[in-house]
Amino acid sequence: MAHHKSVFTDVDVRSHENNLAHRTREIDRERLIVRRGQPFSITLQCSGPLPAKHYLELKLRLGKKDEVVITVQNERGAGDKWWFNQQEAQGEIVLTLHSPADAIIGHYHLAVLLLAHDRHTVERIDKVTFHMLFNPWCKDDVVYLPDESLLQEYIMNEDGVIYQGAWDYIRSIPWNYGQFEDFVMDICFEVLDNSNNALKNSVMDMEHRFDPVYVSRIIAAMVNSNGDRGVLAGRWSEPYADGVPPYHWTGSVKILRQWSKAGFRAVKYGQCWVFAAVACTVMRCLGIPSRVITNFDSAHDVDGNLSMDIMLNDRLEPVETKDSKWNFHCWIESWMKRDDLSKGCDGWQVLDPTPQERSEGEFRCGPCPVTAIKEGKLDLKYDAPFVFAEVNADIVYWVVQRDGQRRKIKEDQKSVGKNISTKSPYGNYREDVTSHYKYPEGSREEREVYGKAGHRVTGAVEENTEPGQLQLSIKHAKPVFGTDFDVIVEVKNTGSKEAHAQLTMVATAVTYNSIHRGECQRESINVTVQAHKVHKQVLRLHYDHYVKCVSEHHVIRVKALLDVLGENEPIMNVVNIPLSKPELLVEVPGMAVLWEKVTAHVSFTNPLPVPLKGGVFTVEGAGLLPATEIPVIGDVAPGQKVSVKFSFSPMRAGVRKLMVDFDSDRLKDVKGVGTVVVRKKYTRPFYENLIMY
């Protein structure tokens, strides 16, 4: 048989135009990255026309061991199959591949075979590979989101804002999601490849990767390292010496890269917002619209009875209980259709990667439709009862007396699940999504939902307002960490008789998830309140006292208990007071041009009455520079302004954010953000040069 002269000479995957059309150009300009349900074209260079009666066959392989093999049909079949068409012209064949809107996401190998009429392979070209992602722009994809401005935020925006603090004192921190930074997409697929499911049965796992419900559930389990090769280890109290303290991170990229580089060993340490932010990065990168949510006064109802018992001893100190109320808790919402559930469950789904409870044997939570929470449909998967409790549980405070007797001192049906927040897609401000999770307080619908969820509703009588009773309130300004400040406890007598009572006030330092770090101050006094009068008691909190026990979250919890003579029910009130930290000023003077050096200035003033030692700034920004540490030389005296300068060369054009964090021995988690508009280099058109000469 005569030697066959090769027909295929080269192949061009046309990544520039394909990636632009598929909105993946930010990820990579060289490699081909496409979204499902949307065609893309590659070009075969040929030495001549195809021999007569020969034809092309296309085969796709997925997975390290070819777990899935697909033959691409050469004409349009039903909409749910891969197919291609070809056009020959000028020694080239343009192949247009059409993927179904439910194609498996992953790293594909494409083989183009030239077959003779008797089906034997004459020639093959094997070197084409591409990545396939979810496509929220495609109306047949289950992650389809029909609003371009929302897609610009929930898929394309690499910078975000995460809300923290307390329900009545909400603060925000900037976050670099960086989902299009170098190697992040590859690491997202490594996250999927290292799940327990993938390691147990790689074929079954690969076959399920078309389904965002499956994929998001894997990610929720894999972002934490409990029970698998997950990305982040959680730790909720110091010391963090063998890792990075959770408050130090300013973005997800360094965490993902570190996990990958260390051979999939967990990165230390995360807390809820870090877990949520990393999950948000992975989801946005893979093409599932996602956003970080903060729930204030979040209940962690371990026994699932929708009522949370907080036990205190006679000194108002917490007796270890499993149930806890967190000042805030972060999870993510991801957008998808739920074809696995009954109607009305499409749209935003709660996913919580913070390790708290096992769900089907793994530490994860969700996806759970937000509508199921609002309607109290707790049988809908996944994990609806747990999420429902986080936003709806009642809190009952008990005092356990020395003889072991319990005395109920306060029941609170209104405090859990307040000001549920996310960053607005239209700017750096807060969008309140509480109404997505619950009906208005006291409404008929709320009562119906509670009934459905098996949640008892007691009489809606305001507490402690019966005549003759005292009312207790706690007031405070917005104190700055480092200053002394007053907390005012007011006892109001609404009755017509003079009242005698014992007032106990306790200030303790707590972490954001209610771990007690010690007592700062305590006072107990006898008070007499005249009829229709108010008694004010001032508790002065000194920096020297609270600094010894305050946690890295800078929250002081003040409890006041009033034992009224002649009454058997004491009155209690609790407030959380977050101490604010100074602003970091981030400035980038001058014009920023792609690949040209630009200098940034960062400064802030030490608000503490003591010097700061071991100060370090950390700066990073998607498209600007990877996380970089800049140590401060020497101590920063009280009231002294500290400033540093640093240079970098922007790597990607557009509006970019520069995130900065400052940590030192006595002041940590100071954050700031600056905006950098990176322009492309302007080159003079060619003809202008001609005219000049």
UniProtKB/TrEMBL annotation:
Binding positions (Ca(2+)): N392, D394, E441, E446
Official protein name in the record: protein-glutamine gamma-glutamyltransferase
UniProt cofactor note: Binds 1 Ca(2+) ion per subunit.
Alphabetical UniProt keywords: Acyltransferase, Calcium, Metal-binding, Transferase
EC category name: transferase
Active site (catalytic residues): C272, H329, D352
GO cellular component: mitochondrion
Domain Transglutaminase-like stretches: 264-355
Recorded superkingdom: Eukaryota
One of the GO biological process terms: nervous system development
InterPro entries the UniProt entry points to: Ig-like_fold (IPR013783), Ig_E-set (IPR014756), Papain-like_cys_pep_sf (IPR038765), Transglutaminase (IPR050779), Transglutaminase-like (IPR002931), Transglutaminase-like_sf (IPR036985), Transglutaminase_animal (IPR023608), Transglutaminase_AS (IPR013808)
Classification via Gene3D superfamilies: Immunoglobulins, Transglutaminase-like
Family designation: Belongs to the transglutaminase superfamily. Transglutaminase family.
Organism: Larimichthys crocea (Large yellow croaker)
PROSITE patterns: TRANSGLUTAMINASES
One MF annotation (Gene Ontology) recorded for this entry: metal ion binding
Protein EC: 2.3.2.13
Cofactor(s) in the UniProt record: Ca(2+)
